[in-house]
Amino acid sequence: MADWSPYWNEILETIDGGRLRELQLKKFRRIFRWTWEHSRFHRRLYDQAGIRPEDIKTLEDVVHVPKVEKSMMREIQSKDPFPYGEALCVPLEEVTEFRQTSGSTGQPVYQPDTWQDWEWWAECWCYILWAQGYRPSDRVFIPFGYNVFVAFWAGHYAAEKIGCEVIPGGVLDTQARILKIQELKATAMMSTPTYVLGMAMTARDRMNMDPSALTINKITCAGEPGASIPSTKRRMEEAWGAKVFDHTGATEVGAWGYECTEQPGGIHVNEAMFLVEIEDLETGEIIRNPGQRGKMVITAFDRMAQPCVRFDSKDLIEWAPEPCSCGRSFRLLKGGVHGRVDDIVKVKGVLLAPSAIEEVVRAFPELSDEFEVVVCKRGDLDQIVLKIELMPGAEENKTAILGRLNDQLRLRTNLGYQVECHPYGDLPRYEVKARRFKDLRQKEI
Amino acid sequence: MDDRVLKELTQQIHVLKETALAVRSKGVNLRIPAVERNAARILASVKMLELTMGDLLDDRAEG
Fold first, then answer.
1. pLDDT tens for residues A88-121?
2. ∠ CA A28-A30-A36 to the nearest 5 degrees?
3. Which of A33, A140, A304, B61 is exposed most, by the fewest CB atoms within 10 A?
4. With contacts defined as CB-CB under 8 Å, which chain A residues touch B52?
């Protein structure tokens, strides 16, 4: 076994804080100037704000650069050049990759990348996979329907770059994928938490197979916060007998964060490739200290075709108080991404984050992996219906289980729920991102 | 990592880049896409080397 460094790039991952900030300033200035010079959309935005590249003298000046929202990107894509619009910074013939966002929050945004950008995507993912223990000896299975959604494409290229053997599990169905993992003795895989649990259920219920008896020893998750929710992480790890790691990224941003093998209860921001700012939801001030949650504003330093400069991602994050014991100087976000600002809803006057419900439900071994939350109106009052499935054999303790569940939900969320018990296997199963939270209140008006 | 090692790496990356640029340019002039496009791909990888190594030293050099 080769004596590998624990770091993909020790030079940058262990850089001291002062030097890192210098590098970030230099890189921000460079991408800002590039965008100002090459994107008609950004130039207009910056001219309106009266800001020019020479105005960025320190990292504190970055806050004066206007933020970009996803809705703006949707708007400009109706303009030339087709199909990307006015944020395209390179000639169309230099674009080699088309991808788009998942569409889970509305009309998908198209993302052009040059080959250099695509190399960059893979490079970002190399930091992730290496930090999670992927090495050239790994055989990596990717149970992902390779398509226009970027998802695990760059993970595939990064695993190749690291030297792993990569098995593309594209159009295979779930059972065929499990059989291929078994046949080839795959050691790692990448998937959404929803599908990690879904595959385990299929193995157990339909194939009479224990997924923990397979050879998978690490799983990289993306697309949903599950791998940073302790109870969901534990379920996945127990089901597969493998370490489960979170990673964070977005189509229009890149792969910007990763959990390392220390599993420190948070994710590292790749601060050599990205600038992450946390903005207070009420005041808009930048939060610099640990312990206060806000929304992320992010810049990708080296993505050139359609740059990402101060993108308002609406992800809820907070800085961790302590550095990670892994030795990386890249800062940690405590608990990963806690959801999106858009996901937080007010029910009966209380702010509710769907991830809080997930954390409670998944902590009950008597409940299946699936659940659904429906917020609706009964008369003038909000009502939350929580649909759950009892595991086979748990029915006889139903009353006690539901009592404990209601207690935990109230404790965690300060809200009461009408819990509906469904037969095991009755609720919808999802392959990529799940849609477990439904707010029907506006539809009823 | 000490700056002497970084500097040496940076110089080697620079040589790679100059060579790939020259090869790409020849591919364009000779109208051989196989040369031009392969050199372009190498340049994208060289850029990753610059980002991971060279950038940092440039930062010091530019002061």
1. 999 999 999 999 987 766 788 999 999 999 999 9
2. 100
3. B61
4. 9, 11-12, 123, 272
Instruction: Using an 8 Å CB-CB cutoff, list chain B residues near A116.
Output: 43-44, 47
| Cα–Cα distance, A334 to A257 (Å, whole number) | 12
Closest CA to A357 of A378, A340, A371: A371
CA-wise closest residue to A103 among A356, A370, A355, A432: A432
The tally of CA atoms less than 13 A away on the side-chain side of residue A125 is 26
Half-sphere exposure for B38 (CA within 13 Å, toward CB) = 8
Sign of CA dihedral B25, B30, B35, B37: positive
* Residue A113: both structure tokens together: 């990348």
Place of tokens 């969320």: A413
Structure token pair of residue A433:
């991102």
**What tokens does A310 get?**
């101060």
What count of CB pairs under 8 Å joins A to B?
42
Token representation of residue A194: 């929803």
ipTM above 0.85, yes or no: yes
Yes or no: say if A38 and A90 are a contact pair by the CB < 8 Å rule.
yes
- Strands in A367-378's sheet, in edge-to-edge order, are A418-422, A381-390, A367-378, A437-439
Parallel/antiparallel/unpaired status of strands A254-258 and A266-269 = antiparallel
Round to whole Å and give the CA distance between A254 and A289: 25
φ and ψ at residue A191, rounded to 5 degrees: -170, 170
B→A interface, C-beta within 8 Å: 1, 6, 40-41, 43-45, 47-48, 51-53, 55-56, 58-59, 62
Instruction: Output the six-digit token pair for A422.
Output: 């469904």
Classify residue A29 as left (phi > 0), alpha (psi -120 to 50) or beta: alpha
pLDDT in tens, B10-52: 999 999 999 999 999 999 999 999 999 999 999 999 999 998 8
Q: Does A9 reach chain B within 8 Å, measured CB to CB?
A: yes
For residue A22, the tally of other CB atoms under 10 A from its CB is 17
CB contact under 8 A, A12 and B52: yes
- CB-based contacts of A65, cutoff 8 Å, min separation 6: A32, A46, A49, A51, A56, A309, A310
Query: SS3 of A390, please?
Result: strand
pTM: 0.90
Q: Do B51 and A123 touch (CB under 8 A)?
A: yes
